[in-house]
Amino acid sequence: MRTAGKGITIHDVASRAGVSITTVSRYMNGFYENMSESTRQRLEQVIRELDYRPNALARGLKSQNSMTIGCVMADMASPFSALLVKGINAVCREQGYKVLILDADNDPRLETEAYKSLLNNPVEGIISNTTGRVDGELLAVAAAIPVVLADRVIETPGQIDSVVSDNAEASFAALRYLKEQGYRRVGFFSPPVEKISTRTARLTAFRRAEEELFGRDAREDTFLYDPADPASLPGALQRFLEDGTKPCAIFSVNGAVTLELLRTMRRQGIELSEELGLCGFDDWAWSELIGPGITTLVADTYEMGVRSAELLLERIRSKERGPARCIELKNVLTERGSTQIR
Amino acid sequence: MRTAGKGITIHDVASRAGVSITTVSRYMNGFYENMSESTRQRLEQVIRELDYRPNALARGLKSQNSMTIGCVMADMASPFSALLVKGINAVCREQGYKVLILDADNDPRLETEAYKSLLNNPVEGIISNTTGRVDGELLAVAAAIPVVLADRVIETPGQIDSVVSDNAEASFAALRYLKEQGYRRVGFFSPPVEKISTRTARLTAFRRAEEELFGRDAREDTFLYDPADPASLPGALQRFLEDGTKPCAIFSVNGAVTLELLRTMRRQGIELSEELGLCGFDDWAWSELIGPGITTLVADTYEMGVRSAELLLERIRSKERGPARCIELKNVLTERGSTQIR
DNA sequence: TTGTAGGCGTTATCAA
DNA sequence: TTGATAACGCCTACAA
Fold first, then answer.
1. Within chain A, which residues score under 70 in pLDDT?
2. Using the beta-carbon criterion (under 8 Å), do B144 and A266 form an inter-chain contact?
3. Whole-prediction pTM
4. CA A22 / C1′ D14 distance in Å
């Protein structure tokens, strides 16, 4: 059974309507100007009857534009990814673009693979939330088609369009806030920073704050743990708490870390208190519900998706290879109970 | 500048290697059998040099299969969606398929639009997490190409392949568990149930439990609130608490509701206690961290994505239009402090 | 106002 | 063992 819309080609429409495929093509593309009212109506009817839909593949092959972008996510499991994708989708839908999603699953090899596959595929541009270990590939890809880095950038700046948040400034401001709240010491908790730009920016700001605000040696307050090793975070927490300087606070590099910290603390019977504060990047719906409420620092992820898509589509449209642009969103500090000393 | 991989066609390879495009095509598709070792090596080298990648569009146009599936999500913002998509992606990547994501943003019209756009586009199949208000469209789509319903099904059963969880059984079991814990009354909290199958299944089970386990009139314990009206949920909660039967517990239809409930409770100074329990569907990372820990009921979302994709790809491959299949995953009850009476 | 024909990059059927 | 060549479905000069 030949189903509606499936397998119907421009030829079917043409013969049924008694015109040439050219005319049908014209009709489909809105070139009504020089078309007799009668054929136009006839076409409209036939197309509806047959439920004809032009084959996007053929159209793309001919016109060399697939109306599709690719979107490579470092880890699709994160709520961050969902929001980013939603923002990207909203813009693309409106502008008639399709979005291909590829999950790198935190694996640089998969990320590289993703770019490969995207290059065969007919995507007109790519939005990348990189794992941070494939700068070379990214530069190569960006040389071939428009790329926008979302949230995370590569080491060499000014090469690729990007939409990021003000990690350094916001981190420093948050640390100043902690200082003003009366905390005398802050620990920076993170998985290995690697080349992930959000992490390096936050760590760098932390180091500066340690020196300028707290007059401490950042090395003693930096706790990089191994997420693969269950004993690693508890150990780091223990070491952090051993130093007697109080009140102290934890500065968490992202939501996943915050979550792991809270889990560990609960398991060990450690509670947030006047002596122990907590503040971190990423704000999920639950941030206000845990304990006294967790103070967070976050940029609008959905907006980041929107901006990334807008930037990319603009780039695609205006074929220009101008200098790389960087859009920076603000991280907002939401103060909650976890950083209240009394 | 003509960049590697971009714009290089089979012709370029052929002429450079001094063979015909046919031979190149053969090479690309692994038909080495009748190929001289020398041309094979020559081809391998040239292809590497030129970084040639076959154009997926042309390939798809010719072979009538795009190696792409579409994935329509009721609401991409939900962490559920992210996990489902990740599962789908994992399978598709492995089998060489691309995944097109469309977000319906909880809007049936957008969902319908998504199917339309997917039908022009050359997807070989669709995984749908439907908003629940477009059964007709879904049936039409499923008549044209393979469709798998993920998590939510349409009203008429047995028509479309699906991967769901045992909502009814698990709900009933959870309610029995609450009964055994000593709760004398349970309130069912949900947004309007509409035609969303997960919700109707859970509500139906609740009604049966009300009758069989609690000997109560379900109508008095069903609280459907309007998510758009901020006063609606607090009002419902108030009404629920007015009845003096204790201890009582809330049965929340999903994670979003649980979150809203917890927010409302916090705002109103209502705490989970021996008198007031809480248990609900969906388990996010924070479930164990809020208050005494929230007892939850949930199926493996990632697995659901994996199964959906496997089912769909199998369907696509074995062109058969056999009877609809339904895979059912188990919801697991994770007992935490929120349903502990003492 | 409408139609013819060539081409987009592949695959596949022949033939050599 | 390899090569012409005709599709695939659509767009678009160029003609009529």
1. 1-6
2. no
3. 0.94
4. 13
